[in-house]
Every structure is written in C-alpha cells, then in structure tokens.
Design goal:
The protein is α+β, with helices and mostly antiparallel strands. It is built from 7 helices and 6 strands. 37% of the residues are buried.
Length: 179
C-alpha cells in the first residue's frame, strides 16, 4: 500500500484547479506505470494505492512508486506531500479487497511523515534491496499503531515530530530480537 497526501494543495484551499489537476494526473500516471490497482479512489487530495504482490515485487514497486510520486509532486510541481508505504494483506478476494486496518495504518503513518518524505514500515523496508535500504534512516516506533518506520530522504529525519514516536529504548530490544 502507498498512501499519498498532497498536503500542499489542502493547505491552500483557494489553490489553482489546474495545479490540482496536474497533481492528480501525475499521481495517476505513476500509479499506472508501477501497476497499482485501478481506478484510484481519491479522498480530496489524498489517495491510497494498492499493489499486487503475487510475484513478490509488491513492496519494491510500492516504494518505487512512492519515491516517484514524491519527486513528481515536489520537484516538478512544488506541491508538498507526505507518503507512506505499508504492507497489508488481502481479505477473502485478493483481487479486490485489502484489509481496512492495513489501509488505516498506512494513512496514520503518512500523517506523521514530515513534509516531502516517504515513511516505510519495517516489513516493506526489509523487502527492499540493500542498496535501497542504505538511503533510509530508521526513525523508530510510531506512537499510534506501534509500527517501526524508516524515512527517505534521510535529511527529513530532522523534521520529525518527536511526539509521534515512542521512546526509542524499544529499538535495542528490536535489534536484539532480529539477531
């Protein structure tokens, strides 16, 4: 799952309709390029993209799409956004239904992301190649949802709202558990 919130558009309710249209078109174009399920269901200036993982490439495609969207919105359109990538399981019919709890968790992670960054949950991070993992910083566990998240780009870690994350002592336990 990828949740994108073009907060820059929401902060300017009188913003130009052409910019909003270019923003939505850019996200939809990238979603098609990375094979997200169609059609997209926009909620204002936010959308959650769903990727199929039947071939094991879902987390990588989702992250690559989120990174492309971040770049498109910020560098091409100067629109501030927050993105999150989270792995969710399908319910009874994998072709059409994703667990709504996973969708909500993805939205909550995006809500604590600093402007112009991508937060990925640990399950997605671990599915990425090491060369991509090296571009992230680990932030810690979110206070809401208790998900371990990593941030791209690393420089955005300085903008994190500390109240959105639990005490980081848990990270030592997590590292010990992994070993």
């Amino acid at each position: 799952l990828v949740h994108v919130d073009a907060v820059g558009l929401s902060r300017d309710p009188e913003g130009s309709l052409p910019l909003r249209g270019r923003c939505h078109h850019g996200v939809e174009s990238i979603a098609r390029e990375f094979c997200a399920r169609q059609p997209l269901d926009w909620e204002g200036d936010a959308v959650t993209l769903v990727f199929d993982d039947s071939n094991g490439a879902g987390p990588q495609a989702a992250y690559r799409a989120a990174e492309a969207i971040l770049h498109r919105l910020w560098f091409d359109l100067s629109v501030t956004s927050r993105c999150a990538v989270h792995a969710g399981r399908s319910l009874a019919d994998p072709a059409t239904t994703v667990d709504p709890r996973a969708v909500e968790q993805c939205r909550l992670v995006a809500a604590v992301a600093p402007d112009n960054s991508v937060l990925v949950t640990d399950d997605v991070y671990l599915a990425l190649p090491e060369t991509v993992q090296e571009r992230f910083d680990r932030l810690g566990f979110t206070d809401v949802g208790e998900l371990l998240v990593h941030i791209y780009p690393r420089t955005s870690a300085r903008q994190v709202r500390e109240e959105a994350f639990r005490q980081q002592a848990d990270l030592k336990l997590w590292d010990a558990f992994r070993q």
